[in-house]
Structure formats: structure tokens, C-alpha cells
Amino acid sequence: MKKFLTAALLLVTMVFSGCGGGDTPAKTDGDSDSKDSKKIVIGLDDEYKPMGFKDEKNEIVGFDVDLAKEAAKRLGSEVEFKAIDWNSKEAELKSGRIDIIWNGLDITPERQENMLFSDPYMDNRQIVFVKKGNDQGIAAEADLSGKKVGTQSGSTAETYIDKNEELKKSFTEFKTYGDYVSAFMDLDNGRIDALVCDEIVGRYNIKDRMDDYEALNVQVGPVTEFGIAFRKDDTELRDKVQKVFDEMVKDGAASKISEQWFGADLLKKK
Question: Which of 27, 94, 241, 259 is the most core-located residue (most Cβ within 10 A)?
Fold first, then answer.
């Protein structure tokens, strides 16, 4: 009887051990449920080449889009890109309709009052674009006086010009556009004499039309920096994205994406 009871107890012990009574293996960083699987919604101007725009297949592509996809992949998160009214970007973010703005967004004091930014990842400046062979003697910002000048609505250039009343009053006309595609069309048609635009964006827009447009080495306003924007109180998401983005810069993934879009590594290094 004793031998029977001993064997029975041993059998019970083995059964319970096999049903999870032992130690559970620790999760590693590669486990899917150890990452943030929440979908991240990124707002952008989907006509803002080369940062984010719709291609011939109506799919959203771009330099910042590729950076964001790589960051989301490393976070283990699904990502959705949503076209927004650029003039209402702060409201879109604050309302929760989007989680991030990643779209060639300049870091400015005004925007920092309403949004939380990542570290700057690229330098940017506003320069003047004109029709080929028609520089109209524009060699400095002041030479825009007497000209019909355009820029994108809600852009850094518009903010700078609006704050500089003397410069703005010196224009014959100041026009703003919902996107740079429309702005370049008006430049082409002579409805404006000069277009003030992000250098990176403008040069990309004219790279296949160098016979039609010209980029003047005329800087308007100060050099700015691109950053990724989050809701003001969303430090958790900002810190997660910042961490993986720093890793992308360090291991060369971000530089590779820059090379693909610009033929050069334009990213800031820490």
C-alpha cells in the first residue's frame, strides 16, 4: 500500500508540474506582446513632396513617411497616415484625431506652446523660387519689395512674413495656398512673381522641371529645424518614438532613407 501511495503522489506531482507548475520563461524584447501594439495615427499634408504625398497609385509615400514606418515597425505598432487640413494641425492633434504630426514640421516657439516636439532631426530654411531666367533682381529678402509673393498657408514662411509687417507691406500682393502644388502652378502662370518655400520641399518639386523654375540662394527668415510633434501631455509616446528614432540614426537606417530620397544624408546627428 505504501508503495502504491508513493507512486500515486509522484504521478500527481508530475501532472501538475507539466500543467504550468514550473517557472514561466521570461519574455524577451522580441516578444510581440512586449511592444506597444496600439495603432499610431500620423497626420500630414498629403501633397507635401517629398515629405508625405500621394503617388500615382494613390498611396501615401515620402521621406517622413518612410521614417515613420520604420519607427512604428520597431515599436511593434500599426501605423495609419491621415491627410489633415494643415491650417488646423494643432486642433487635429489636440482633439485626438491624430497622435503625431510627422511631415516636415518646423519647430517654432508658437508651435511649442501647443505641441510637444521631438529633438530636431533636420535643418530647414525658407528660400525664394522664381520662373527660370526671371530672378527680377532678387538677391536678398528686401528685394521682394514690389513683388507678388506667395507661400503655403500655415507654413513657417507665412508665420514669419505675418510677423514682419514692413516686409509684408512692401509686397504688391501676398497670397497663400493650401498646398505647394497650387503655389507652383500660380508661379508658372505668372499670378505671383516669387514663391517662398521650404528649400528641401521646393528643390524636390522642381527637380524634374529645372527648365521651368529656379531656386534662388535667397534666405527668408531664420534657419529652422524639423521636428516630430505630439500632444502637449503625451510624453510617453514622444519618449518611445524618440528612443527608436535615435536608434535609427545610430544604426544608419535613417541615413539610408535620406540617401534614397535626397541622394545625401541630411539628418542631424547628436
Answer: 241
- The answer to whether 154 touches 91, Cβ cutoff 8 Å, is no
Cβ proximity of 79 and 68 under 8 Å: yes
What's the confidence (pLDDT) of residue 34? Answer: 41
The residues near 222 (Cβ < 8 Å, ≥ 6 apart) are: 125, 160
Q: Helices (DSSP H) in 144-252: which residue ranges?
A: 156-163, 165-170, 180-189, 199-206, 235-250
Neighbours of 189 (CB within 10 A): 9
Give the dihedral sign, CA 238/95/54/120.
Answer: negative
Helix 199-206 and helix 180-189, axial crossing angle in degrees, nearest 10: 60
Beta carbons within 8 Å of 223's beta carbon, 6+ residues apart: 123, 124, 125
In this prediction, residue 27 carries a pLDDT of: 38
- The amino acid that residue 209 corresponds to is R
Q: Give the confidence band of 38 by pLDDT, cuts at 50, 70, 90.
A: confident
Length of the chain: 270
Structure-model confidence comparison of residues 234 and 36, the more confident one? 234
pLDDT tens, residue by residue, 182-220: 999 999 999 999 999 989 888 888 888 989 999 999 999
With contact defined as beta carbons under 8 Å apart, do 88 and 43 qualify?
A: no
